[in-house]
Amino acid sequence: MFAIVTLLIAEILSNGSLAQDQGEWHFTEGAKMRLGKGRINDIKFSPDGRRFAVATPIGIWMYDAHTGEELSLIAVLPGEGREVTTIAFSPDGHTLASGEWGGIGRLWDVLTGKPIATLQGISHPHEIG
Fold first, then answer.
1. Cα distances (Å, whole numbers) of residue 13 to 16, 41, 98
2. Is the pTM above the cut of 0.70?
3. Is 86 within the bounds of a domain?
4. Predicted confidence band at 76 (pLDDT cuts at 50, 70, 90)?
């Protein structure tokens, strides 16, 4: 499944942009054309390899690693200057940590998509994980 995601990312990068809503792309049958929304800042696989999370400037999307199906939207971040720059799964895969510009870190429940905690004043939120 890692190979499928790698090929999708390579296809996106080869078009010269990370924007998801541009032009016509030629994917193989069954391939997904969209990962997240807009530019991709980070992608991480769950410890069991069954899911992967995609961090974008406006939110975090969860996908099934075997089918590529979008499972859920973990977060949408309102407001200017709030951008998810990095993500990391907990060892048990039940919690997702995210780092944002502005020194904010968040913990999310992977199954419900609900926030668990918000951490302020993180000096390097882009280094979470």
1. 6, 13, 23
2. no
3. yes
4. confident
The C-alpha atoms of residue 84 and residue 42 are separated, in whole angstroms, by: 9
- Give the pairing type, strands 95-100 and 59-64: unpaired
Model confidence pLDDT, tens digit, residues 11-65 = 444 444 444 443 344 556 665 545 555 788 899 999 999 999 999 887 899 999 9
Give the range of the structural domain holding residue 67, as residue numbers without chain letter.
Answer: 35-127
Cα–Cα distances in Å, from 116 out to 26, 74, 78, 82, 91? Answer: 40, 12, 18, 18, 16
User: Which tokens in the block code for residue 103?
Assistant: 């020194």
| 10 domain residue, yes or no | no
Backbone angles phi, psi at 37, to 5 degrees: -135, 125
Amino acid at 49: G
Q: What is the C-alpha separation between 87 and 62, in angstroms, rounded?
A: 11
- State both tokens at 118: 């918000």
Alpha-carbon distance of 75 to 56, in angstroms, equals 10
